[in-house]
Design brief:
It is built from 12 helices and 12 strands. Strand 11 and strand 12 form a beta hairpin.
Length: 361
């Protein structure tokens, strides 16, 4: 048993070191692509290291601070190194063994039962089909989906915008390369979901009419309250259906009174965008029903007791009501759009999380 425990600890350390290097490499490689590279001054380096040493007892790598400082032109000690966040903080905040369930989009309407979530038509869970919540065989699923008008199909696990398609089906033939619906199911293999398209509010559609433009809210469940760390809006590009920044969209911060910031950020080196492809000037643009979004997120976060940090994707329907598209318990940080790691809550969150055990390694 002692040898087995030693082996598990050894493998965990290897995994931890590999993940540290992986996350650091992602940002350092992106930094090399930037046209305008900024270096931290001695004073800035000292400010960062004093800040982190006081909280976690050690210095941190500075690559994230240099990268986001270069992108935004704004320096703050409150940027969070990506490897510290993904390998430590998120694993202390959220109980890792439960994240496989929480991250499955097919589970979201179950976990948030009776709440306003995107309507699910079909699920494939581990190869099993469910139509409108009832188990069906594959041939029944194909038959029931032979005629669908403008729906979204996507992987239910870890998509990050990949594999997300808006499709229609008529007499069994899809709008995707004239594939049959059965052939399309074969392409997705298993673990996918079909949802109704959201008919979004006209002010959200004005940002980009071809994509459902969502609000990403990062919330943190502290001991006695749910804090709204930040909110950003994610906007698709002209003719595209995806709004994720990592999949080609742009994002900008939302102020506490529900208005957009001055500039948006796109791909890893596409910076300081002042207006959308549809011509909407970002600065001061008002997001409809923003107060309802915040109220909904604060209330729903309490239904996820094993996740203290949650990223929520919220759309605004035609009638102004917010609807949950999905939530993410392995969420990243929108540090370019937000121009900080976790803003005014950075120190509070790190100090609360740091004494906790790492639930992965």
């Amino acid at each position: 048993m002692d040898i087995l425990k030693f082996a598990k600890r050894f493998v965990s350390k290897l995994d931890y070191r590999h993940d540290l290097r992986t996350w650091e490499k992602k940002i350092t490689d992106n930094y090399k692509l930037l046209e305008d590279k900024r270096k931290l001054s001695k004073e800035q380096k000292k400010e960062v290291q004093d800040f982190y040493k006081d909280m976690i007892g050690r210095e941190v790598p500075l690559y994230s601070h240099e990268y986001f400082y270069s992108r935004t032109g704004y320096f703050t000690k409150e940027y969070v190194p990506t490897n510290l966040y993904h390998c430590e903080l998120i694993r202390k905040a959220n109980y890792f063994p439960y994240m496989y369930v929480y991250s499955d989009k097919n589970m979201h309407d179950i976990l948030l039962e009776k709440e306003n979530t995107a309507h699910v038509i079909l699920k494939n869970m581990n190869g099993y089909y469910f139509y409108e919540g009832k188990p069906v065989l594959e041939n029944e699923a194909i038959s029931l989906c032979n005629n669908l008008e403008k729906v979204v199909i996507k992987p239910s696990l870890h998509s990050k915008g990949k594999g997300v398609q808006v499709i229609s089906v008529k007499n069994g033939i899809t709008s995707v390369d004239n594939l049959t619906i059965g052939q399309l199911f074969k392409q997705y293999k298993k673990n996918f979901i079909i949802q109704e398209c959201i008919k979004q509010h006209e002010k959200m559609a004005a940002l980009n009419p071809t994509s459902v433009n969502t609000i990403r809210v990062l919330s943190y469940h502290s001991t006695s309250e749910v804090l709204i760390v930040y909110a950003v809006v994610r906007i698709g590009r002209k003719g595209k259906v995806i709004d994720n920044q990592c999949a080609g969209g742009i994002s900008t911060t939302i102020t506490e009174d529900g208005k957009l910031g001055k500039v948006a950020f796109g791909g890893y080196n596409e910076d300081n965008i002042l207006q959308t492809d549809s011509g909407v000037v970002l600065e001061g643009y008002e997001i409809p029903s923003y107060d309802k979004v915040i109220e909904m997120v604060k209330r729903l976060h309490l239904k996820l007791p094993f996740a203290n940090l949650v990223g929520w994707d919220v759309a605004i329907q035609e009638n102004g009501e917010p609807v949950i598209i999905e939530f993410n318990t392995n969420t990243g940080l929108s540090q370019s759009a937000f121009k900080s790691g976790m803003g005014k809550y950075t120190e509070r969150i790190i100090r609360e999380l740091w004494p906790r055990p790492n639930s992965k390694y």
